Amino acid sequence: MAVKTDIEIAREAKKKPIMEIGARLGIPSEHLLPYGHDKAKVGQEFIKSLSGKPDGKLILVTAINPTPAGEGKTTTTVGLGDGLNRIGKKAVVCIREASLGPNFGMKGGAAGGGYAQVVPMEEMNLHFTGDFHAITSAHNLLSAMIDNHIYWGNDLDIDERRIVWRRVMDMNDRALRDIVVSLGGVSNGFPRQTGFDITVASEVMAILCLSNDLADLQKRLGDIVIGYTRAKTPVYCRDIKADGAMTVLLKDAMQPNLVQTLENNPAFVHGGPFANIAHGCNSVIATKTALKLGEYVVTEAGFGADLGAEKFFDIKCRKAGLKPAAAVIVATVRAMKMNGGVAKADLGAENVDAVKKGCPNLGRHIGNVKSFGVPVVVAINHFFSDTDAEIAAVKAYVAEQGAEAILCKHWAHGSAGIEELAHKVVALAESGASNFAPLYPDEMPLFQKLETIAKRIYHADAVIADKSIRDQLKAWEAAGYGHLPICVAKTQYSFTTDPTQRGAPTGHSVPVREVRLSAGAGFVVAICGEIMTMPGLPKVPSAEVIRLNDMGNVEGLF
Questions:
Q1: Residue at 174 is within a domain
Q2: Catalytic residue (one of 41, 57, 73, 89)
Q3: Sorting pLDDT into bands at 50, 70 and 90, what band is 107?
Q4: Residue 166: phi, psi to the nearest 5?
């Protein structure tokens, strides 16, 4: 029997009207702004009215380092939300929105897979409710106003060589990484070098995802440092007088999006910073709203736990005052084999030795997450090619690490295939075993924070940074930014900065190429290794096979 594709399964979904999904959470219809029949935004006034309600329990789903074999973190997040509802708990899923660029590149969408998906899948992976377009527009409005200010006399005495605010677009386009603007003569302004990042790397994206409300959003936008004067003093977004108009553009984007799973359970899909180049979590406002409306909130953090989980704990939880009750680490037998040296073409053949050899990557993530004081369970995302002996090898290894691994078949069977994990998560959350604390204190110096992440999470020996980078960090400390957390931009494929180094390597160093101050978002970005904040398309991009079929339906999205 042919296995249906994700998009075929999603198209067959028996969706309920979004007002009905909202009613299940106690959201009156007048507080839902519908975008068609199957998605809606939740109004700010309703969200404010929830402030006195108790919070549910927050469950983080993270994963091992991604491999071409596939791990299924979002699929497991959605499946676990369905599973918790199946065993009688009122659970809400919170995930990020998909970025257009990777959809047409190689990463694919962000709606889950198989019978553990959020729908409408096509809209979620394309324009959805327009949030990313609003973020892109707000970001580039500031860019335009900076160059316009300089054109009309530069009253702020901005040093054009020290403008740090770049432009963004929601597409993978390596040609725009480094560009020169304002060519063509006097009427076009003053030529200078700049570049584009992808929208998910925008500080505006991070700000929207970390803001509590519109007032907080505007303050954070105003705090953005866009560059420096010739006297080397910072110039802020509010000095350019762009923060008010940017807030107007983001007014609707700030409202969380409500959709549903294939099993008609509620899901918030809001915000979308990548974890390799940004902080990798859905919005604080969506998570906090869900915690007021559900007994359990299942959320994910991007890529492996070395990036997503670390940033979830050290940035999002620290800034939003969140305390996760438990964490799920997703792994697959196939990925363990790939970490153990098996080529992708050979993953279908049983190889217990390779599974055992690849397990240390999983083991390191287990230890890292536990170091935050959060209890851990491993979800083995099942593939049809997995053998009993291989599954047993993973379970035995995880038991040696002081945790439990549970086989999950939600991709094929929906909530019925993940009940055991749901019961385990409830047991961990109800046990009160979580004693969450971030990895480092606010008052630790910035470079020491970076070293702490590199040594304790990546298990590196050292951080390599030029004197200019160390001096920049010290200057930011002197300017009052020393309390900010660090957001490391590095490859998602390895604990190191070399994407080919799988497993659990030691004896490596972390080279820092550049540091960027995100004063509005409230963190310092350290760009490490060869990571790019504007991705490129692969040799054969997914866009080549995405099309409309004869019925007018989208084909090729995954």
A1: yes
A2: 73
A3: low
A4: -95, -175
Domain residues for 497?
446-528
Are 305 and 372 spatial neighbours (Cβ–Cβ below 8 Å)?
Answer: no
Helices 131-151 and 203-210: crossing angle, nearest 10°? 130
Number of domains the chain contains: 3
Which helix (H) or strand (E) segment holds residue 420: the answer is helix 419-431
Active-site entry in 15, 41, 107, 316: 107
Is 120 within 8 Å of 259 (Cβ atoms)? yes
Q: Do 405 and 353 have their domain in common?
A: yes
C-beta of residue 486 within 8 angstroms of C-beta of residue 453: yes
User: Based on the domain organization, do 315 and 219 belong to the same domain?
Assistant: no
Answer for the pair 77, 295: CB distance below 8 angstroms, yes or no: no
In contact, 534 and 196? CB cutoff 8 Å: yes
- Residue at 310: amino acid letter: E
Q: 62, 67, 74, 75: which is the annotated catalytic residue?
A: 75
Q: What is the CATH number of the domain that holds 144?
A: 3.30.1510.10
pTM as predicted:
0.95
In a shared domain, residues 273 and 404: yes
Residue labelled with tokens 């070399």:
498
Both 194 and 273 in one domain: the answer is no
Mark whether 75 is an active-site residue. yes
Residue 554 near residue 298 (C-beta atoms within 8 A): no
Distance of CA 397 to the CA centre of its chain: 28
- Is 455 among the residues known to form the active site? no
pLDDT of residue 554: 86
Active-site residue (options: 303, 313, 476, 523): 303
Q: Is 290 considered catalytic here?
A: no
| Catalytic annotation, pick one of 91, 206, 275, 403 | 275
> What pLDDT, on the 0 to 100 scale, is given for residue 231?
96
Helical residues (DSSP H) of 305-409, grouped into ranges:
310-311, 318-320, 333-339, 352-370, 388-400
Has 107 been annotated as catalytic? yes
In the residue annotation, 303 being an active-site residue is answered as yes
CATH number at residue 485: 3.10.410.10
The tens digit of pLDDT for each residue in 133-181 reads: 999 999 999 999 999 999 999 999 999 999 999 999 999 999 999 999 9
- The whole-angstrom separation of Cα 525 and Cα 486 is 6
Annotated catalytic, 383? yes
Question: What's the chain's length in residues?
Answer: 558
pLDDT at residue 122 tops 90: no
Residues 6+ apart with CB under 8 A from 166: 143, 194, 195, 196, 197
- Domain presence at residue 4: no
Tell me the C-alpha distance between 374 and 144, whole Å: 44
Give the other-Cβ count within 10 Å of 497's Cβ. Answer: 24
pLDDT at 2: 66
Is 206 assigned a catalytic role? no
Residues 312/369, Cβ–Cβ less than 8 Å: no
Place of tokens 């409230």: 522
**Whether 274 is catalytic:** no
